[in-house]
Amino acid sequence: MGISKNPIFVPGVWGPYFSAMVPGFWLNEGGQSITGKLIDHMVQGHAAFPELQAKATARGQSVYAYLNSHLDLIKKAQPVGFLTVDLHVWPDFHGNRSPLADLTLKGMVTGLKLSQDLDDLAILYLATVQAIAFGTRLIIEAMESAGHSISTLFLCGGLSKNPLFVQMHADITGLPVVLSQEVESVLVGAAVLGACASGDFASVQEAMAKMSKVGKVVFPRHEDKRYYDKKYQVFLKLVEHQKEYAAIMKGD
Predict the structure, then answer these.
(1) DSSP letter (8 states) at residue 213
(2) Which of 134, 137, 180, 185 could form a disulfide with 235 if both were Cys (CB 3.0 to 4.6 A apart)?
(3) What are the C-alpha distances in Å from 29 to residues 132, 136, 164, 232?
(4) What does the angle CA 238 – CA 241 – CA 247 come to, to the nearest 5 degrees?
């Protein structure tokens, strides 16, 4: 969600809508379809999922908290993101919403091996989280090309509670990620509107300033930039190749 003082038309991104989110500003909305469900699909469909479930339950953790700790265990001395050097995912298992706006696109995974152990599951999970972050980077680039200026990401919702998801977004976009002090920040938004409706604040902007607080800022690891730039090149090649495959199959 990006706001601007003047309307900006971004190909493949919804909007601009006037006063849709913040009164007096134009809103563009670029999203990816069912990202949380995609992560569930990749994790739950893996042969090692029953083992993961049993170990997470024994430790009293969610499967994702367990996977995050397992990744820290197997990364050894390297940054955790480098575990996917040979594994790449294109995340449009349900078509692309933004910025390509192509419902015919499919998901892709390259770099699979015969192994089906917990390490393999953890790395596939990581590659999927990274793919979603690369999708965010693609949307940001489309919005900036059209005239938006984006220097910070604000994350809310269920996936923002996952520290790996947040850090990968920071590292892959190269932008700091701001998290709300109130974890259920969507409820704060409802309260902001209620406070305006009751007359406690004169404007949405005033209510936002008084009722919302920054909880944490996650900064990108700039020393890893070259690695993620290379993975982003592969990411873009995946969809380019998928379109070539479709053209071959449709040809005479």
Answers:
(1) -
(2) 134
(3) 16, 12, 24, 22
(4) 145
